[in-house]
Write a structure and sequence with these properties.
Blueprint: E1 7-10, H1 14-24, E2 28-31, H2 37-42, E3 50-53, E4 63-65, E5 69-73, H3 78-83, H4 85-90, H5 92-99, H6 104-109, H7 112-118, H8 124-132, E6 135-140, E7 143-148, H9 149-152, E8 153-155, E9 158-159, E10 166-173, E11 179-186, E12 196-205, E13 208-217, E14 224-225, H10 227-233, H11 241-244, H12 262-282
Parallel strand pairs: 1-3, 2-3
Antiparallel strand pairs: 4-5, 5-10, 6-7, 6-10, 8-9, 11-12, 12-13, 13-14
Helix pairs in contact: 5-8
The structure holds flavin-adenine dinucleotide.
Amino acid sequence: MIPLAFDYEVAESVDHAIELLGQHGEEAKLLAGGHSLLPIMKLRLAAPAVLVDLGRLEDLKYVRDEGDHIAVGAMTRHSDVETDPILQEQCGLLAYTTSLVGDPQVRHRGTIGGSIAHGDAASDLPSALLALEGTFVVKGSGGERTVAAADFFEDYLQTALAPDEVLTEIRVPKLVQNAGWSYKKFNRRAQDWAVVGAAAVVERSNGSISSARIGLTNMGSTPVRATAAENALSGASADSVAEATSSADEGTSPASDIAASSEYRRHLARVLSRRAVEEALGR
Ligand code: FAD
């Protein structure tokens, strides 16, 4: 449980972090809350030679109303996302999902940026950000670019971030008036990781569902959208939710592990998607 020795650098700014990443190449890792990186270093599944600490970058800790969207700085801690009044009012799904991440200790150290950059399909926030159609701002030696959540998660713990890039901001569109939302997390004990989770954003018009977006947690090597169920829900009435969400596991490839078999995860994806859409419709 003791990591291999590493050097430690403090980033004074985002540009300084990028410079340090450029100097040390793939040997370096950014350190945010350390709640995913340090456990894997202790297990020696990662052995970076240099840690570049982003902890003092106060200018990456914010939640801002930007008109049509809300911008969240990458170093904003889960506890600040969970309790932020702008997010609670305009994008309740992100605030609520964050309140289900681990326990209070984890939420007081872990950051939204660390959770996204880590790219773990079992994490709660990536699937919520897929359902919200969020975008991520990343900066590297080649400049700044934005990446849609749908294009960001590439494979198991692999994202679109280049080795010298820093995730700086998460952008979420404000939820429109007629949109309801929900996140359903199934875990074995309170505060555990999700065996499976389902995040839903549902828009209604004239008594029927005009659009539904469902993000699934832990149903493959990346967070995924339940596109077959989304298509079935589009234009459907509230009475057809059970039938439409029966395809929520289509196209997914969940693992079997000590927590659940692949087949059981598929069952959970269908049940949780139905419950999430039903709750979103009633909200
Ligand atoms: P770190 O651990 O510091 O970094 C994680 C990775 O992201 C590293 O590779 C790092 O280099 C990279 N990184 C960090 N910041 C940036 C950046 N700005 N730009 C580019 N790369 C960056 N998560 C859940 O979703 N649900 C849970 O139920 C849950 N339970 C947990 C329970 C425990 C006991 C623990 C220890 C963690 C749990 N987590 C859970 C994970 C937690 O949410 C972590 O805080 C989060 O995944 C990582 O955030 P961090 O700030 O700690 O990142």
